[in-house]
Amino acid sequence: MSPVFGLGVSDLWSWVLLLGLIYVMVKVYNLYLTWRELDKALRPFEGPKRHWLYGNAHEFLEERSDLDIMVRHAEQYPYSYPIWLGNFFAGLAVCHPEYAKAVLSRQDPKDAFSHYFITPWIGKGLLVLSGEKWFRHRRMLTPGFRYDVLTPYVTLMSDCVTIMLDKWERLIPDENPVELFHHVSLMTLDTIMKCAFSSHSSCQLDSESPYIKAVYELSRLVDHRFYFIPYHNDLIFHLSPHGYRFRKALKTAHEHTDKVIKERKQSLKNEMELEKIQKKRHLDFLDILLCAKDENGQGLCDEDLRAEVDTFMFEGHDTTASGISWTLYCLAKYPDYQEKCREEIRDVLGERTTVEWEDLSKLPFTTMCIKESMRLYPPVPEIARELKEPITFCDGRSLPKGINIFLSIYAINRCSSIWDDPEVFDPLRFSPENSFKRNSHAFLPFSAGGRNCIGQNFAMNEMKVAVALTLQRFELRPDPKREPKIVSQLVLRSLNGIYINLKKL
């Protein structure tokens, strides 16, 4: 064989091996620098002992619940502690209100890793945006959650809950427990469809709609990809059967959203003022988005419109379903509190089977029960931030920019240094007098600060409507044979479902 550039074959292979060795050495050196920077940054923070190779990752494989581990560590390290997943990915787990306040009072973006897998679906909307674009979108979307826009939604919520309860009534003769999350999730999806699109999808009665099936498929596949480590690699996921199903569902969901936006744009051509639209019908979320303008008179482009609609569908669907399901589970476990809620609801509603806007403020004890359920079972059990600037905490310890913060809402909610008897279900923790005494960042079901959940009033209204109408019609009892196994999968779920027994009143 002729030489290449004057080199023989053996010489060429020697150079290839040498270049390969240099490449490996550079990668190893860069990993070493990463480890050294993380180790230096997190050294001031005491934490659980880590394995020389796995870091703390092996703990999460050995124990029953990741959330239980976080609570256990929070008791031992009451402000924060480092979590190492291997030797080259680490962050600070925060489990104290004052530390949470320091983090959430800033405008640091949500960490890119947590939302990487969902961005292909929801695009770059409020959930994943940061910086000036986030501020612009937040200002433009805020009018969509004013009380005058939310008011007519309450009737739609009542209609959707009633459909779910009618289904449950037909299931009662079977004398089998009802699995809450599936039914409630369809109901919240139905509600979102009606409030976001004015779309009467009938998804609770017919879940065979291609769009509804696509939304469910995407939710499941995002969960699966996040927890199945090989799928973190784009190529492996793309070539897998799950990757094919994800792309197929994604195409269906985006085509549906694009079609709805295009049709609504056409219908609004001659009446692009909210006041004119509102005289004819109630506004939905899409109306607000299409008519929104920034200070320069610029609206959202088609890509941004779709991102915000898809984000609203994602955030307002499973998170609210989690909150409602766990609240009904708690009330089933504690019949005395359930009956007290029912008495309050009967006093407010009387014989009416539809909740009205004015009723929502007249259910203080029911609201306390919902909040206590969200303390024990927060729909979003943890949030993350990536520090764009250094931060100094209340005890003087600091972190440099670039470090990830994992804020464990679940651990804060169950920490004995913050709550008396934290495992006890006690709605009176949220009475006005007790709430006044508590640290402002001890209870964060919707986060806090500038990046708090823009739809928190929408979610709370829906939870009140669902609980009120359910207790008006049914007595709830737990299923002792199926105790839920709590797991964090984007939202708080149960591995074996959330089952309760129903008795028609």
Automatic annotation (TrEMBL):
Keyword Oxidoreductase: yes
Keyword annotations of the record: Endoplasmic reticulum, Heme, Iron, Membrane, Metal-binding, Monooxygenase, Oxidoreductase, Transmembrane, Transmembrane helix
Single Gene Ontology MF annotation: oxidoreductase activity, acting on paired donors, with incorporation or reduction of molecular oxygen
Binding site for heme: 453
Keyword Transmembrane helix: yes
Gene Ontology CC terms, in alphabetical order: endoplasmic reticulum membrane
Cofactor: heme
PANTHER family: CYTOCHROME P450 4B1 (PTHR24291:SF211), CYTOCHROME P450 FAMILY 4 (PTHR24291)
Name of the protein in question: Cytochrome P450
Species whose genome carries this gene: Engystomops pustulosus (Tungara frog)
